Amino acid sequence: MENKIIIAGFGGQGVQSLGMFIAYASIHDGKEVTFLPSYGPEMRGGTSNCSVVVSDKPVASPIIAVPDMLIAMNKPSLAKFENKVRKGGTIIVNSSLIDTKVQREDVKAVYINANDLAVEAGNVRTANIVVLGAYTKMSGDFTPEVMKAVIEKKFAKKPKVIPANIKAFEMGYNLE
Amino acid sequence: MKELMKGNEAIAEAAIRGGCRAFFGYPITPQNEIPEYMSWRLFEVGGTFVQAESEVASINMLYGACGAGARAMTSSSSPGISLMQEGISYICCAQVPCVIVNMVRGGPGLGGIQPAQGDYFQATKGGGHGDYHMIVYGPSSVQECVNIMYEAFDVADKYRVPVMILGDGMLGQIMEPVELPPMKDLSNLPKKEWATDGTGKGKDRRIINSLLINPDDLEAHNNYMLTVYEEIAKNETRYEEYMTEDAEIVLTAYGTVARIAKSAVNIMRANGMKVGLIRPITVYPFPNKAYKDLAEKASVKEFVCVELSVGQMIEDVKLATEGKKPVKFFGRNGGNVMSPEDIVAYVTKEA
Questions:
Q1: Of residues A69, A168, A85, A61, the one with CA closest to residue A123
Q2: Which pLDDT value is given to residue A47?
Q3: Helix A162-173 crosses helix A114-121 at what angle (to 10 degrees)?
Q4: In order of start, what are the domains of chain B with their CATH numbers?
Q5: Which end of chain B, N or C, is more open, meaning fewer C-beta atoms within 10 Å of its C-beta?
Q6: B277-287: b or e for each residue (b if 16 or more CB lie within 10 Å)?
């Protein structure tokens, strides 16, 4: 298997950490992975994206021209990457912030009101973790147990935020 | 379990495990994670971290520390490395082993901060004045960065030449699983009988110097260094070939571009095209023989050199293949990076 994912949104939405969770899960699970952040003069509110390749073989190119999956956390990201997704690929749309629909009919579009669900989970900043849950379910790259273990490990220094993040993850994972 | 590390941080940790105990540098994107990591990590191992006032100061501090026998390094990115060229030339003449990391960004000038390979000439042909070379590695993954950095101080010490790790912004920023080697035992390293470490009481004076004012002395020195470079070429040349056994088209690239090219090979192989890849791991010494051998194979029709520049390594490829087969070029520059599909499109159309 090889899953090429582009994750994009505003700086501050947790786009990079979402990618990093997937990368940490990969090593936790003995998979190969590359995590390539966009870097530059970006800051909170600017655009931010990262490319993650999860594979069971060593990853050659970390550069993704044709992603299998796009996670669009805001409207400009959907506009920028929608047409790059491979035919038959998946687009996860954060419908809390994106009021348009995916125009293409040859991809699977999944709408998740991530920010609203995050508020429900107890912390609006867990919107990326809601999406992480949905990704985990849809991709089948990892079991939810692996991902939850990674969440607990990564937030080990801030144990207070773990329950909201686990809840956010489960809400995303259990979406129909 | 492997650890997930950013290229820059993995290089810093591997340097420390390889024996680096001093770092001198000045901030510049996209390599700032190296000094940042060193600034706290070196103190844990009793080392020294100095943020210098400039790159010129950094390289001369490195000259001094390594002249006194320390295992020390600096890191920078393109414009900063340009500022270091005078010092590098002095260090090479004075035969002082050290390690320099260049996480290349777009140029010329201040250029941009995105990945590029436009410093190939500077790194491999001697960016400073005079006749000299460094050993220059072009790693293509975080693990390879670690492996090369871990041995870099030993290699530098063995030949008394600087070792440069020539990366790019992508390699510095990418995160990958890595396996880190154990801390090297520094207690039984070979003694540096030439170093000005203040322990030579009663012996001949030790002098670290790059001024050889007598032409005969300087010529003898340069001719001696030539034998060192020949020895390096014989022992240290490294490269990787991928699917070249029956290849008709041989892609060639170094560093992160080589892995993009590898993906392109995989795509084209799946389409039934006979494509392979040769990747220099040392860009100096350049693996001339491997290229020549490929060029002499009847099955090989042509080479395609892929770079993040307007065409630099292609000159070495042409020299090494001695005109036996055509060498074409596909590149992006300015901080733009090609995708595997871009390479496939070029090869399908042009080759």
A1: A168
A2: 81
A3: 140
A4: 3-236 (3.40.50.970), 239-350 (3.40.50.920)
A5: N
A6: bbbbbbbbbbb
Contact by Cβ (8 Å): B344, B268: yes
Q: Mind telling me how many Å the CA of A116 is from chain B's nearest CA?
A: 31
- B176: part of which helix (H) or strand (E)? strand B175-178
Q: Does A28 touch chain B (CB under 8 A)?
A: yes
Both tokens of B102, joined, read: 């260049």
Whether the pLDDT of residue A41 is over 70: the answer is no
Is A66 in the B-facing interface, judged by CB distances under 8 Å? yes
The answer to whether the Cβ–Cβ distance between A27 and B340 falls below 8 Å is: no
Q: How many residue pairs bridge chain A and chain B with CB atoms within 8 Å of each other?
A: 71
E strand spans, chain A: 2-10, 32-37, 47-55, 69-72, 90-94, 108-112
Mean pLDDT across A84-109: 97
pTM of the entire predicted model = 0.96
CA distance B101 to chain A (A): 19
Locate tokens 């001696």: which residue? B224
Which residues in chain A have Cβ-Cβ distances shorter than 8 Å to B139? none
Please answer yes or no on whether A60 and B170 come within 8 Å at the CB atom.
no
Distance from CA of B271 to the nearest CA of A (A): 17
| Cα–Cα distance for residue pair A61/A82, rounded to 1 Å | 21
Angle between helices A144-154 and A15-28 (to 10 degrees): 120
Determine the CATH number of domain A2-173: 3.40.920.10
pLDDT above 70 for A38: yes
* Residue that has been written with the tokens 């008394």 in this structure: B160
Taking contacts as CB-CB distances below 8 angstroms, the residues of chain A near B175 are 20, 23, 34-37
How many Å apart are CA B148 and CA A169, to the nearest integer? 40
pLDDT, averaged across chain A: 95
Of B170, B175, B338, the CB nearest to A23: B175
SS3 A84: helix
CB atoms within 10 A of CB A106: 9
pLDDT tens per residue across span B154-187: 999 999 999 999 999 999 999 999 999 999 999 9
Here the ipTM equals 0.94
pLDDT, tens digit, 9 for 90 and up, residues B84-111? 999 999 999 999 999 999 999 999 999 9
Q: Is B299 helix (H, G, I), strand (E, B) or coil?
A: coil
